[in-house]
Automatic annotation (TrEMBL):
Source organism: Streptococcus gallolyticus
UniProt name for this protein: Uncharacterized protein
TM spans (from-to): 35-56, 84-106
Domain of life: Bacteria
UniProt keywords, alphabetically: Membrane, Transmembrane, Transmembrane helix
Keyword flag Transmembrane: yes
Length: 228
């Protein structure tokens, strides 16, 4: 390779905007946020189910009809077995949840700040609320304008499903916002129209970070911030 070619290759590699080389991968927090939320909901439901099973078993134990004792004992055994299975599943899911959270907290403690973990959770919730669209719309269809019909909007449902995966990960020196692109063209257009508002929202929440323009990679939309 001659000298001019080497020079131009070096120049191209070192003057390309940095965002091209940014590693657009989800952090551990972004990968596990929805998982942790779903685990918490499932654990609470299992606890309620176990409580209901125990209450039902106790109620059956209060029945004193001799002719039904064998049937009641059989049902109580089945309820006991189900309650034990529910308890085991609850403990397993709780262990997974605790392991996931502890792993994240350890990473934050050693490489970042635990406070940023809670900031990330708060801003993720806030951004989802900001992006969420009302899926129901009202329209008046009667001649006398007296009848109002509420209709379901499938475009907004698709949009809301996509943005339910968005996350904000705050670090000491960087901040990354991940938003999943919707599947349908109409929902994608809605998100494109909101991109400027999204940047304004996250910039307002994080004035100490400078944000680049949004970067789309496949079905993922990223906003990357660096500390000023």
């Amino acid at each position: 390779m001659n000298t001019p070619t080497k020079f131009f290759r070096y120049f191209a590699l070192h003057t390309t905007p940095r965002k091209v080389f940014y590693d657009m991968k989800k952090s551990f927090f972004q990968k596990t946020y929805n998982l942790n939320i779903n685990l918490i909901i499932l654990i609470l439901l299992l606890l309620l189910l176990k409580l209901a099973l125990l209450l039902l078993e106790n109620q059956l134990g209060n029945i004193e009809i001799e002719s039904l004792q064998s049937s009641i004992s059989f049902v109580q055994d089945k309820l006991n077995f189900t309650a034990y299975f529910v308890q085991s599943l609850t403990l397993t899911l709780t262990s997974i949840l605790v392991l996931s959270i502890c792993t994240e907290l350890f990473q934050r403690f050693t490489k970042d700040s635990i406070l940023n973990y809670f900031k990330s959770i708060y801003q993720t919730i806030r951004l989802r609320q900001f992006l969420k669209q009302d899926e129901m719309s009202e329209s008046i269809i009667s001649i006398d304008n007296q009848t109002t019909v509420t209709k379901f909007n499938p475009i907004l449902k698709n949009f809301n499903h996509a943005i339910s995966s968005c996350t904000v990960d705050i670090r000491q020196d960087t901040l990354s916002v991940f938003i999943k692109y919707p599947r349908t063209q109409q929902a994608q257009k809605l998100l494109r129209d909101m991109e400027g508002h999204v940047k304004e929202e996250i910039s307002g929440q994080n004035p100490n970070y400078y944000f680049s323009s949004s970067i789309r990679e496949g079905n993922k939309l990223w906003y990357i911030g660096t500390r000023r």
